[in-house]
User: Fold PLDc_N domain-containing protein from Nocardioides baculatus.
Amino acid sequence: MASKKKSWSDMTPTQKKVVVAVGIAEMALTTWCARDLKHRPKELVRGPKVLWGPVLSVQPVGPIAYLVWGRKR
Assistant:
């Protein structure tokens, strides 16, 4: 049986804090990756920089993929 999706008002205070913390972490990581992408020379990015921009908007996979595969050392 499929479980009913919880609304914000159904969540406990702890669950709400976790959701907010994860959201803040995702925003911070995405912002950091976007700034890194903007300032990193194209020679140090795997693939076209213009394609990594939209990838960063796919949460939470995009920023993690950029950090793992998108940057050259």
